[in-house]
Each structure stands twice: as structure tokens, then as C-alpha cells.
Amino acid sequence: MRLSVVGIGPGGADYILPIAQQVLADADIVIGYSYYFQFISHLLKPGCACIGKDLTEEEARAALAVDSCAPGKHVVVISSGDAGIYAMASLVYQYASRHPEKEIDLQTIPGISAFIASAGKLGAPLGHDFCCISLSDLMTPWTTIEQRIKAAAFGDFVTSLYNPRSKKRFWQLERFKEIFLAHRSPDTPVAIIRQVTRPEESILLTTLKELPVAAVDMFSLVMVGNSQTYQFKNFLVTPRGYLDRKPQSGQEIQDESFRQIAAQLQRTDLSPADKWAVMRCIHTTADFEYEDLYHSNDNAITRWQRYLQNGGTIVTDVTMVQSGITKSFLEKYRSQVHCYLNAEGVPELAEKEGLTRSQAGMRLAIAQHPEALFVVGNAPTALFELCDQLGNEDFKPAGIIGAPVGFVNVVESKLKLQAMKQVPYVIIKGRKGGSNVAASIVNAAFTYE
Fold first, then answer.
1. What is the pLDDT of residues 45-78, one digit of tens each?
2. 3-state secondary structure labels for all residues of 10-60
3. What DSSP element (H or E) covers 313?
4. How far is CA 73 from each of CA 41, 106, 178, rounded to the nearest angstrom?
């Protein structure tokens, strides 16, 4: 005994797949919605029994199909479109699974679904991710349907609507429109395709805002584009990607990264220069907390831009900060960067004065470059040394970047610098920071425009 569930396409004779025609020609019994027999009667063999049911009798059709299976008989259940999409296949298989003793030979023959046929008529609306949602709440709670609508709207899916509106279910499409307008542009392209592939076929192109709900019925499929979909002549086109092409070069990747970072920033008190420095810190760390940790004074980034682009000198506490400053910027503006951590005389000075090597290195650097931009990305003791030396009249730095990282005395060193109002500074508050962050701030000053 054989039982086939066959999708007969959306209605046009040319849209019935050859394999579906072959199965229908072999059928002994065909069961389906009475309206559909007009599309397939010419394909049936003489003597084939046709059993028509009403539109709402889906479960009765499935039960009848399983009950009608008998040795030597081929029973076929027909569905419009594809039998597995909002159609009879699932019901038939459910009923068959309740009668394993019958040992029915089951198969599903695919068909061209209404949304596929509609997409063909519209040109290229399904070029990217898409979904189908049925607005019928006869077998699915509306609360579940509404969750799916919200997910589709938020996820920017091209969305095709089945069962969009009937005489009794007239409000659901209006609610769908309301939800989508909360997430999509009012100008989002929308198509209403009625009686697709049939002689009465009509297509209306409109927008989400202007969607004429009253013009939609159960013979209609509604297709809503995503944020990239556009109308070209009488077609809808959804590009395969959200950019003409993905960033490929290093500069393109960096530019796109900065664009994404800028779109997520929340602070409104940052100057354009400070915003640029924050973006560089986030780009280096992938950590948006740096937006809140960043603190500056005295228009520091803009002042350092002028200083560095005029060949200014940079002093760092560790070689990792020195390495993180982009070499092409140094070469372009003939700036110099120094790190005295491993300089001659540092170990002796540290031992003699009871200092850390970072402190001793900074003390020597101050003597050599009292007007430099001093950058601390590792050692809080180096930052303490700079703050202590600010009382020396000969020490007039271009500024101080305070971004040491760690636990012991890190927070305190930054708070001490914050109290030193006489010098331009950028501070990364709290325990976070590091060589990469400190270098990013220098690179931000080099590149701010």
C-alpha cells in the first residue's frame, strides 16, 4: 500500500513538476480540497477516484487518506504549492505514525510553493535570508505568531506571509504591519501577489507604510523586503549582502570596524577628538567598557595632535608601548619615541634610590626630555614618578597618558594624575589599561583630523 503527498504548485499548469505529474498519473485515489481538482483532473488516469473535502477539513483528509490505504492501492493527497509548507504532509505523516501496523509506503513529492512562484514574478526579492510566517491562528496561538513576527522584523528577514487575511481573521495583518513599522523603514518595499500563476494573477508593489490591508485576502501572498531591498522597474531586488562586497584590505577592515564601533557609542559628553581616542581603544581591545573608563582634560588629544605632527618626542614606560606606536606615523612626522627602562645607568639609579626600574627610567627620561609626551601603559610606579616630578619647574611635559594595568597601586596612581590639573592628560580609570591601550591613544592623537 502506497501513500503519496503531492504538491501541485500554486495553480498554473506549467508549475506542476514532472515528478508530481507522474505520481498523479499512477494514483488510484486522490484526496484533496475540492477547489484544487480543476488543476489536476486532466493528469489522472481513467477510473481514479477523486474525493473532495472542504477547505477546513485538513485533518479529515489526512485520516481518510490513511484509512483508505490498502494492498495494491496508491492513495494520493494533494496540496497546493509545496505539500510540506503549511500543507498536508505533516498531518498525513502524523496520522500514519499512529497506525504503524499498516506498513504504508510513504513519500512526499515537492511542489513550487507560492512564495517561490511569487519571488520569480518579482525578480529577485529572496537574495538574502528570508522566512515565511502564517498569520492563521487556527492551529497556532497568536502569542506565538507575534513572537515570530517580532523576531523576523528585528532580524531583518525578507518575510513572506501565508494566510494573511480572511473575513474572520482581518486584524492580524494590521498588527503585523504595526510591529514591522517599529523595526523597518516605512519605505520598505512590499508586494501583494494575488492568485499567483493563475489567470487572475495580479501584483501590487507598495511600501510598508502604504500597505493596503483591506486589499489582501486568502488568495494573496504578501512579501516584505529587508532593509536592503529596493524596487527596480517592476521588480524587487534584495542584494546578497549588506555591503557591495565585504571589506578585504586592511584599511577597509579597519574602516568598517570603526564604523561599527561608532554606531554603538553611548556617551554624549565626548569631544570629537576624545571620541576618536575612545574608538581606537575599543578597536584595540574589543571592549566597550573603555568608553566609560576614558577620562581627559584640557583638550589633550587635539593639543597632542599639533605637538606630534610637528615632530614631538614621546617617552614610554615600557618597550611594549614603544612597539605599539605606529612606525609610519613616527616616520611621517619625524617624531621620536624613547623608552629608558633598559637604558644605561637605570639599574644603578634604581638600586641607589630604592626605586623600581620604571621609576628610574622615567627620572632619567625627564632629565633628557622634560617637554615630551609621557606615556605609561604598564607600571603605576612610573606614573607616580611623573606626578611627583610635576612639582619641578624644569619638568613641563606636553602631557601624560596614564593607562597602567594591574592591581597594586594602579587605581591610586591614576587618581593622583587626575588631581594634577596643570598638565594635559588622558586617563583610563580603574584597573584596566595596558601597553596596547596607551599606544592606541598616542596613535589617536597622531591621526585625529
1. 999 999 998 878 899 999 999 999 999 999 999 9
2. CCCHHHCCHHHHHHHHCCCEEEEEHHHHHHHHHHCCCCCEEEEECCCCHHH
3. strand 313-316
4. 19, 12, 50
Tens digits of per-residue pLDDT, 317-351?
A: 999 999 999 999 999 999 999 999 999 999 999 99
Cα pseudo-dihedral 326, 328, 332, 333, rounded to 10: 10
User: Residue type for 131, please?
Assistant: C
For 196, phi and psi rounded to 5 degrees?
-60, 135
Distance, CA of 367 to CA of 379 (rounded, Å): 19
Set 74, 183, 283, 338: catalytic member: 283
Question: Regarding beta strands 202-207 and 189-194, do their DSSP bridges make them parallel or antiparallel, or are they unpaired?
Answer: antiparallel
Q: What is the gyration radius of the CA atoms in the chain, in angstroms?
A: 36
Which strands sit side by side in the sheet containing 202-207, from one edge to the other?
130-134, 158-162, 220-224, 189-194, 202-207
Amino acid letter, residue 273? A
Residue 442 DSSP SS3: helix
**Is 283 annotated as catalytic?**
yes
Residue 375 burial (10 A CB sphere; 0-12, 13-18, 19+): buried
pTM over 0.85: no
pLDDT band, residue 290 (cuts 50/70/90): very high
Question: Any idea what DSSP says for residue 9?
Answer: B
CA distances from 110 to 10, 53, 317, 417 (A): 12, 21, 70, 72
Name the percent of the chain in helix, strand, coil, to the closest 5.
40, 20, 40
Amino acid at 213: V
Torsion of CA 117, 120, 125, 127, to 10 degrees: 100
